[in-house]
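Hi Prof. W.,

I finally got the Endonuclease prediction working! I wasn't sure whether to trim anything, so I left the full sequence exactly as given:
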Amino acid sequence: MEITLVIASILIFLPSIIWYLLKQAHSPWWLENTFSTPFIVLPIYIVLMFVLISLLSWQDCLGYLLINFIVALCLNSSGSFNNKTCVDPVSFFQFNIKYHEGENELAELIAHLKAEHYHLITLQGVSQQAKSQLIAQLTPYFPYFVSGESQLQQIFSDQLLFSRYPFTHIKYYKSGHSAFLITSRWQLPVNDINLLTLHPPSPRNEKLWQTRNKTLYQLKQSLKTTPLTKSLVIGDLNLSKHSRRMDKLMVGMKSEFVNSWPNIPYSLPVFGLAIDHFWLSAPANICSRQRISQFSWSDHYAVKTQVDFSK
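And this is what came out:
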């Protein structure tokens, strides 16, 4: 009986404990990537199960597997968030369109943006060809935009921003001829916001992982040195909410996480990762965040966020 309890404890609790401890690691790159999701507890459980297989029945194996699966679901839960107490919120739209240039796809996106009353739109994964079309179609509705590039400085990026309100003090953080981080002052009627939008590369190898981390360091430094009291960070950071880096990056900031990647038909939000982030400084409040399932042609979900800046 005591042996059975020990085995049960090992197979129920140890996978999650191993995941929690190893997700604290910042390197190497493959380890941080591997433990960016709590569903890694399932292969950890399977390894432990085979070590102890001679002491288990198949009913035990399946039962403990189900328990670990439920634990992973609970650890990864990041659905929509809604605070009904907000009044007259400011509305945001963020989306990584993944370089799709199909006429039907862009037309669908443009129609949605024209119909909705967003105050700020931040897009990533936008090609040069798509930028021209989006700017031509959307500037009558959103007269202020940041193209995400500077011919004078020979800087290019895949970001594109639109707003009802002006941008000033636009700064590109160079990495060669690329700019993964763009900062500006977003001039809302009530006050100026320190706006930081970014899209560092996906850490698919060590070099890209280092580039992503350098961009995140630039983000952290920019947040520290801004003269403004209110800051807003928006973008596909290619960093899971489960990463230990989050705690250091988000000092003084707050968020509500929504699992926005990958965009797989009929998949539940609980199986995704929160990598399309929206952080803001106190005392502003996030009223709601929800992913938009309309655009099936990207591997990301678009996310709508509403914020109360009245405080």
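Residues 2-76 form one domain. Does that look reasonable to you?

Thanks,
D.
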